[in-house]
């Protein structure tokens, strides 16, 4: 089958599109989905993930609940003002009830079991706070050898959204983010706000999704609060699908164009907490202004129309 994939997620409207992209793609072997706190509390993100998979006819995919809070400090707020109180613009009731029971295993154990059982390295797409991934790599360092790469939606090269400096997923648990991005040795592609904002979709794209059938109509119906938020951000009717951009790269390596930069994460308690420090100066280690951090792949560009078409084709069934 195609790409072996695990999604770690906090659904979330853009997470819903990302899960749909993987679940509906014929060339993806979706091994499991793990939930984490984030856009809304853990009980809600877990329920949303399970019910989304039911909508997509994917009751074969196990779901396990993970971290309900950050590793060190409590998180000041969630993102209900962006995603709605239930994480899905108040429309989670339109999703079918999940028929597959929630895994008794927690998220870390499910990921570990899936990695150990796989006959080839597995891609993990963390599209929420990185707490579960940090816990996996800390408790089971040998698991890293079975991870092909982490394709992470998070961070910003030049701006944030939760604060001036910090993007929501990284800001939600900077200590876990630093563990994963800086202190581990697993291959990483970081998909930042700078690119995901450029991949925003418009009313015509959403209308095509809604017209494609029951799944597309239900997905489009989950976007109302989220769409209103981004209409205010952009000053026009456009909506960002952050997490789906990362999952597109997880499915189709190279659909995003990356540059290798040294990245660090600010874990201080000041106004820059959660900022991804992306050093684009390309200094040598012997330079006195050399910055710490780890060199990772940062997604900086893509064929914007091609990316939007790739996602829409997968969601509407045109790729099947």
Automatic annotation (TrEMBL):
Tell me where on the tree of life, at the top rank, the source sits. Answer: Bacteria
Q: Does the keyword Hydrolase apply?
A: yes
Keywords for this entry?
Glycosidase, Hydrolase
Q: What is its EC number?
A: 3.2.2.1
Q: Which Pfam families match?
A: IU_nuc_hydro
Which InterPro entries does UniProt cross-reference here? Answer: Inosine/uridine_hydrolase_dom, IUNH, Ribo_hydro-like
The signal peptide annotation in the UniProt record is none
Which top EC class applies here?
hydrolase
User: What cellular component GO annotations does this protein have?
Assistant: cytosol
Question: In the UniProt record, does the keyword Hydrolase occur?
Answer: yes
Write out the GO MF terms. Answer: purine nucleosidase activity
Gene Ontology annotations of biological process type: purine nucleoside catabolic process
Domain Inosine/uridine-preferring nucleoside hydrolase: from-to ranges: 5-304
Name of this protein: Inosine-uridine preferring nucleoside hydrolase (EC)
This protein's species is: Amycolatopsis camponoti
């Amino acid at each position: 089958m195609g790409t072996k994939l695990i999604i770690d997620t906090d659904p979330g409207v853009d997470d819903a599109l990302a899960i749909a992209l993987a679940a509906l793609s014929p060339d993806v072997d979706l091994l499991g989905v793990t939930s984490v706190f984030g856009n809304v509390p853990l009980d809600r993100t877990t329920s949303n993930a399970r019910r989304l998979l039911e909508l997509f006819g994917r009751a074969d995919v196990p779901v396990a609940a993970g971290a309900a809070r950050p590793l060190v400090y409590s998180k000041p707020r969630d993102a209900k003002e962006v995603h709605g109180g239930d994480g899905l613009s108040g429309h989670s009731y339109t999703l079918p009830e999940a028929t597959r029971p929630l895994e008794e295993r927690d998220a870390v154990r499910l990921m570990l079991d899936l990695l150990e059982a796989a006959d080839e390295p597995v891609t993990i797409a963390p599209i929420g706070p990185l707490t579960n991934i940090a816990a996996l790599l800390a408790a089971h360092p040998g698991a890293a050898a079975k991870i092909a790469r982490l394709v992470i939606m998070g961070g910003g090269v030049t701006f944030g959204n939760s604060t001036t400096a910090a993007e929501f997923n990284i800001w939600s648990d900077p200590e876990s983010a630093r563990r994963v991005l800086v202190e581990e040795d697993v291959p990483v592609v970081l998909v930042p706000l700078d690119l995901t904002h450029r991949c925003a979709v418009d009313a015509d794209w959403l209308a095509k999704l809604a017209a494609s059938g029951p799944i597309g109509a239900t997905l489009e119906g989950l976007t109302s609060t989220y769409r209103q938020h981004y209409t205010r951000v952009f000053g026009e009717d456009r909506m960002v699908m952050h997490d789906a951009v990362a999952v597109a790269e997880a499915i189709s390596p190279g659909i995003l164009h990356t540059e290798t930069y040294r990245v660090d994460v600010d874990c201080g308690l000041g106004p820059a907490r959660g900022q991804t420090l992306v050093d684009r100066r390309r200094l040598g280690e012997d330079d006195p202004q050399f910055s710490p951090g780890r060199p990772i792949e940062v997604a900086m560009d893509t064929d914007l129309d091609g990316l939007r078409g790739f996602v829409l084709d997968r969601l509407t069934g045109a790729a099947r």
